[in-house]
Give the backbone structure.
Amino acid sequence: MIDASEMTEENSEFAPARRVGRVLLVAVSCGLIGSILAFAKSGLDVSSPADLQGHETVVLALPFLIALIGGAFISAGLDGRSPHRVLRLDCCKLRLAVGAFFAGVACQAVVVAFRSLIDGSPSDSDGASGTSLFVDSFSGTSQIFVLMVFTCCLLPLADELLYRGVLLPLTIRRWGSIKSIALISLLFALSHFDLAQFPSLLFVGIVFGLLRWKKDSTTLPLIAHIGFNFSGLMMVMS
């Protein structure tokens, strides 16, 4: 006969995994609804995704990201707590904000150095060449502005709210900081579906996770992520 206390303990052991699944389900479902609406309203021919221009891809991705951000806020309040308290998007001192931004820039420098060691040149890898082609497809001030907002604001915001804002605190409560940071960083890297970029994404995920854990704030990893994306974009555009 199974003791009821053992069943409770076993259930609680898998509770964080169920909550992670629930958060991902809510966030991704919101994103998919946004994408479906975007496809229906855009008037773009999506039968051949490879033929889409960079700015057209962004037009289709924007509703997904915005809905994903909304899904993160909804997920943060699923346990009855205030989403603001869960996400910890607090104001921080200017010194910390500047430090976080340059920490993101430093991560980009480490990633570039790693690619240089592996591929001989940062521009030789498939991921780098694909990024260059994507960025080069934007022309004109308005399209460049959309690219900057998309890359340096919406992408970091969606990633940090979901992974470091909601999922990391959810798992730390049960599995501890080290295991949780490793797990969420792995999930973060895998979610980009880019094998060539996997080691780099895993590295920055760990750095951003440590920032979130040490400072108990999602603001600093968000700023670091902005610095990482901004410096990478500037390198591609130069």
Q: What stands out?
A: Confidence is low (pLDDT under 50) at residues 1-11. The longest helix spans residues 4-42.
